[in-house]
């Protein structure tokens, strides 16, 4: 039962604050490592593009945004050197969006930094408490908790 010192609305705010702390720390470190232009939404896009590439339409579906919104983000990431457009070898009428080496480097570095941030939380809270928190969140979260459409869900 919620109490005055632990109201129900505090839980999602604390979860969001933890998420925001991790994401802000990630992007500060990525900036130090040569990726200052990467933004949180870009990570969702790079994950949705994947190593095999995709079309702008498929990307929009994966992200839960319109083809036009996906195309605008792709344009930005192409300009920054993280993505490229290429002809689809299986269908000359289609254009694929693919990650460049810079995009792959950003994802690889993100994975390493996330591990470091988790280790930092474990050093602060204790490894057992962090593992228990992860287990508890897996228990209450949907089985398919990693959804790429989070950026569209957070938007207007």
UniProtKB/TrEMBL annotation:
A Pfam entry, by short name: MarR_2
Record has Phosphoprotein as a keyword: no
Domain HTH marR-type: 8-142
Keywords of the record: DNA-binding
PROSITE patterns, per database record: HTH_MARR_2 (PS50995)
Gene Ontology terms, MF aspect: DNA binding; DNA-binding transcription factor activity
GO biological process, one term: response to stress
This protein's record includes keyword Protein biosynthesis: no
InterPro entries per the UniProt record, alphabetical: HTH_MarR-typ (IPR000835), MarR/SlyA-like (IPR039422), WH-like_DNA-bd_sf (IPR036388), WH_DNA-bd_sf (IPR036390)
Matching PANTHER family: MARR FAMILY REGULATORY PROTEIN (PTHR33164:SF99), TRANSCRIPTIONAL REGULATOR, MARR FAMILY (PTHR33164)
UniProt protein name: DNA-binding transcriptional regulator, MarR family
Species the sequence originates in: Micromonospora rhizosphaerae
Source organism phylogeny: Bacteria, Bacillati, Actinomycetota, Actinomycetes, Micromonosporales
């Amino acid at each position: 039962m919620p109490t005055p010192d632990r109201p129900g609305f505090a839980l999602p705010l604390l979860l969001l604050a933890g998420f925001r702390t991790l994401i802000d720390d990630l992007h500060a470190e990525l900036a130090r490592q040569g990726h200052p232009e990467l933004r949180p939404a870009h990570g969702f896009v790079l994950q949705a593009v994947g190593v095999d590439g995709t079309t702008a339409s498929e990307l929009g579906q994966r992200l839960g945004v319109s083809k036009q919104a996906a195309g605008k983000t792709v344009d930005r990431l192409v300009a920054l050197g993280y993505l490229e457009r290429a002809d689809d070898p299986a269908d000359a009428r289609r254009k694929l969006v693919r990650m460049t080496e810079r995009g792959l480097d950003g994802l690889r570095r993100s994975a390493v930094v996330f591990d470091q941030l988790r280790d930092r939380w474990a050093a602060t809270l204790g490894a057992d408490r962090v593992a228990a928190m992860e287990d508890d969140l897996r228990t209450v979260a949907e089985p398919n908790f990693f959804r790429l459409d989070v950026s569209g869900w957070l938007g207007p």
